[in-house]
Each structure stands twice: as structure tokens, then as C-alpha cells.
What does this fold into?
Amino acid sequence: MLKLRHPISLLLIAILVMAGVLRSFSTPAPIGDDAPDVVFSAVRAATILDELLRERVPHVAGSPYNTVVRNRIVAQLETFGYSPEFQSRFHCNPMFGSCSPVENIIAVKPGVEGKNAVLLTAHYDSGWAGPGAADDGAGVAAILEIARMAADFPPFTNDIIFLFSDSEENGLLGADAFAQHNPLFKRVKAVINLEARGSAGPSALFETGEGNRGLIRLFSKNVERPVGNSLVYEMYKRMPNDTDYTVYKRKGVMGANFAFAQGVPVYHSVIDDPEHLELGSLQHHGDNAWAMIKGLGERGLDARSSRENAGYIDVFGLWLVHYPVSITSGLALVFGVWVMLAIGAAFRREFRFRQLRWGLLAVPFMLLGFALGGYLLSWPLGHWPDLHPLEHPFPWPGRLALFLMVGLVIYSCLKLFTGRVSACSWMIIAWALIFALGIVLTNTLPTAAHIALLPLAMFALGSLIDLFRKKSPAPLLVASLLGFATATFISLYHFFMMDVVMNFDQSHIKAVSFSLMGLAAMPMLLAFVKQRDLTWKPAQWLLVAILALCAVHFFLPGYSAERPRDMTLMYSEVGGQEQGYVVLESIYRRPDRHYAEGHAFELKEINNGRLGTVQRPVREVNSLQLPGVNITDQRLSKEEGGWRHSFTIDLPANSPILRLGIPKAAALAKAWINGELALDTSIENKYKRDIDTLQVVYPGDAPLEISLLTGSSDAFTMAAVTWHELPGVLVAPFMGNWPDDARPFLYGPRAEKIQEFEFGAAESTE
Ligand SMILES: [Zn+2]
It folds into this structure.
């Protein structure tokens, strides 16, 4: 039977596999600036980035500082011998209702044919709070370093277009302007987009165009350290994030979207600066993009070889396993039947059907045990302390507690069921379940079929090897070990993958990823303990160790200076009211309670500028009576498709943003700003909104002509929000004791003026 010398060998396999999996979640060593010219050097790219963001300040599209950054990018391109061009326009993306000035920078390395082009792009604008070194300065610096390398490189077949897009943060405006209005776009047949949703970690391929089989093959062949899992894309589709590639993908252009996503608390925060960027991430970005450029640059891009999708997962960042989705059902059937036959053949003499009864109890016991154990641990690990929703700054004690919990459940299972459940009955049930999972995945989520297909395939392969060592007393030992190693790989890969998108308060979901590993390990363990008496002692020790790790975790801070919570001081007033508020804003997380109490902030419902209220810790102050907008020349007319409200908005001087909120009851269909279509509510996007919004970033001082096409004739209220400089004297009293682990995030410090305007019912003007 399955005679293992000792179960320690399984633990050793698991540790080795974990070391490999952790390589997938780490970055290559940055290459120094003494490297030859033809090599991508993260240190050289970082020097460029350091210079681009010298002042370490935000540079939102349309802001004066964005012009400074833009000029530095252009100067770099010129030193490399390019003649960069601008694409300048006031642009709106009707998908988001968002407008801003756009200044794209475009440089071209001409190809031999001069027909098709590969677009390598990253956005150079930042968000409102920080300088955007990772998002997306790393992408910009990587492309500049590649442009330098490409300048001396013999021409490729295809043109290479370097696009430094503007105003991504305000709704993919630069990319949309390029796709809509730049004649170069028509020649673009492939896109490589570099992005970030954090400040560290590997640059992973997380999105591609539809029909990606050829691209994945190229990625697998050309990229030295491929990292990616097609399941990530399924998760990304469900997340409220977009990148410039969304624009090109919607236009049917094939592409590869790379991003790094560790260090999430730094994302869009004031410390997204060059000092907090992991150089390895920059190196990986550059290595990936350069390898893809070399591949796509030489490729015939006229006809795509395949319109089929591929599933893929990297093994230790060394190889990419990839497969066309069309063969997954066949593979699942072949491997599944093969595995079941191999097990049947191996155990045909000793197997009795009644052995399955206890197995049918024991297998669900273990799977539920993982989920329940994870759920119970999510309290001490997650619910009590303050936590970032995504990433823990010191995750290892929590992770170890989860690992030991998995060990405890497996041991308890052995103790309870040894003698009742035979190794072969467990093996039959476990692998039948994995087979069933394969069938379900191939039919519902075929790009995730590798989760079941890989363990099945390796078990099948192992059973072949076992055939040649037939005389052995352990008929399926190699199959079991290979199946276990692969199941462990799948379990650990997905555990660490989830570690980046969920914190320990969701430990039950993280723990479920160990199911495959547990299923595959048990037959060997059951065979090992068959003749032995197990006691509860080891289980008690495991429990003690888990509790000790929980205690350690409990005393670790949920935030640190390097992985801070988001916390911003801003001021808010509503037009016509006597009082205003200094607001302690913490949009996605909780503000520091000691700080809030120390400065006597009180929770209060305040106007959220979106025709509703929000509860925030505030201090009431006298209204600053900030200048707001004026609405003049209001006109209303009936036309095909609804009622058209036209009006002029006079803006206060130097306001970086104007945001209008229109209630859903008005049934807004379309909106125009200065004649540009600014919003079309019929375009689907990922964001569910309680109201329709229009925003203009850096609108300038000239009045804006606005026109709304509404489906309802009823009267409605429109909110108008403008931003102003936050007066230093107002917040100076609150700057004492500012916690080290809290940093402004997303919109940053500002003074907000909220006004509300009534728009009359249609009848009244007819
Ligand atoms: Zn970005």
C-alpha cells in the first residue's frame, strides 16, 4: 500500500513547493547602472524617475506640476534621439462623465514595414494625494529606459509607439483621446500597458485581450520570469478598477496588461514616492515590456493566428503552463477517467464499497474544518485589531497560524477516522471530487481549469511511472506524491494570491485554498498511521502554538509608517450655511481613534456633496464662505428623447475640480460640456453609482457651457462641488500628534465647497 517512510517527507515537499511559490510573488534583483546599454537597468530607470518627480508632489492632469513632469519626459526622449509629439485637447470620457485637459506624449521608433504598430504605454499623471512613483511613474520610467535601449536597436518589422498618456486617473482620458482622435491609433495592433496597484511585488500579467492564445504563447516564450494566473483576470473583472487598456480592449485591440499589486496601502497615498517603490518591481516591469516588445515588434500582426482564449499559470516564475480553453473539457475527462482507473486498478483487491461510508463523512469533515478553522481565526487575526482591508504589514504570524490550523484539522481528521476510513476509499473520494471540480471549472470558468487539471495530470503521469515499478509494495506512491506536490502548489499559489487582495478578517476564504492539498495528502497519511495509536497530544500542542501565534499577531500593528492607513484633514462647507467643518477623512478605512478623540472630533452626518450625507469625525468651525459657482442662462426645452437643460457655470478662480451630481430620478441620458459629449449613461462600466456625476478636472477660469438631456420632466436638485486651497491656519491646531501610521490618501487635503441648485419642472417653463 502507500508506504511513506515518514510523513515528514510530505512536510518537506510542502516547504519546497512554498519556497517555489514565494518566488512567483517576489521580484527579480534590480540591475545596476553599470550594466551594458542593451540591458534594462532598474537603477537607471529609477534615476530617471527620481528626476521626473524631483519635487515629490502630486501632478494631476491639467495641474502646473504636470507640465513640469511632461517637459522632463520630453527632454529625456530628446536626449535619446526621438522627436516626441504632443496630442493636446480638452477631452471627456462619456463612460465616466469625466473631463480634463489632456496632453499625451508620443514618440515613435519606426519599423521596417511602417504599417502596423505596437503600443507601449503608461500614464504619467498622478492622483491627487501623492507623486505617483509606483502608479504610474514606474511604468513611465520603464518605458523611458526601454526607449533608450530601443533607440540603438536595429528597427523591428513593426513601428513601436511609446505613449505617455495623460489623465488616466480622471477616467482614462488620455488613452480615450488617443484612441478617438489620434491617427496613429489605427495602426496599433497590440498594446502593452504598464500599471500599478501598490508599490511592490512582481509585475504580473493580469489582463489580456480576447482571443489571447497567441499572445500568451509569446509571453511564455519571450519573458524570462513570467508571472501570471488567468484566474486573476476573473477577479480583476469583478473589482472596481480600470486601466488605460480598458479603452483599447473595448476597441478590440489585443494587449498585455502588467501590474504589480503588493504594498497596496501605499497606492494613491502621499507616500507613493520613489523612496517607497520596490526597485525589483521596476526591473520586472522593464524586463517584461522589453521582452514583449522584441517579440511583438517582429511579429506579423495582420492576422491573428487564433481567436481562442488560453488559461495560464506560472510555476515559480520559471515557466508558464498554458492551454487553450477548447481542450479543457477533453483533458478533464481523459485525466479524470485515467486517475479513477489507476486508483481502481491499484486497489481492486482490497476495496469494498462499504468502506466509502466513513469516507463520505470524513472528507466533508476536513473541508468544513478548514473553512470553520479559518472563520474562527479571522476573529483574533482580523476582526479585533484595526486592519487595512487588503494587506497586512506583518503577515507571517497570521499566515503561520493558518498553516498550523490546517495541520490541526488534518491531524484531527487522522485521529478521528483512522481505522474507519481506508487510504483507498479516501483516495477514491478525494480524486473523484477533484475530477468533478475539473468538470465544473471547464464548463463555468475554463481559464481557471488548471486548478483541477494540473493535479489530475500529474497524478496520471505519476501512475504511469508507478506502472514501471509494479513490484513495489506501494502501487500509487509516485502518483500520490506528484499529485500531492501539484495540489500543494495550487493551494499555496492561491493562498498567497488571495493574501494580496484580502486581509485576515477573511481567513475562511484564504483557508479554503488548502482543500486540494489536504485532499491529496490524506491517503498517504492514513496509510502511514494505520497501525499506530494516535493521541490528542499533538493536536493540543498545535492548538497552543496557534493561540501563541494569534497573540503575537494581536500585538503587531495593523498599520505602519511604510504601510499606512488613509487619513486626511479636509474642510467642507455647504453654500448658505453659517458653519463649516474640519473633517477627518478616512475613505476606505477607519481613522485613528486616539487621534480623533485627542482632538475632540465628533461623529456627525454631513453633506457628502453627492445629494446625500455621510458620517464623518468632524470639528465645527465658522464657515470660510468660500467662493462657489454661479449658474446663469438656464434654459429648458423639450426635444426628442427627453428634456434638455442648458446652462452656463461661472467658476471660482483656480479651482482644480468641478463636480456636478444629478439624482438618478432625473433619468440623465447624456451630458455635454462645452459641446463635448461628457457622459452617456447607457455605456456600461464597472461602477454602480447612487447618482450620476460629471466632473471637470482643472477646468480653468472661463465659464463652462453645460447641457443635460434628462428623461424625466420633474424638478430636481443638482449638487455642485468645487475645491480650494486648504488654509494652513485652519488645520494647524490639528497637526499635533498626527500618527506616524496615517497618511493622506486619494484626494488629499483640500477645502470643499458644496452648493445645491434647483432645476424646475418642465411644465413651469412651457
Ligand atoms: Zn494608474
The first strand starts at residue 85 and ends at 93. The chain has a mean pLDDT of 94. Residues 367 and 515 are 6 Å apart (CA to CA). DSSP finds 20 helices and 24 strands in the chain.
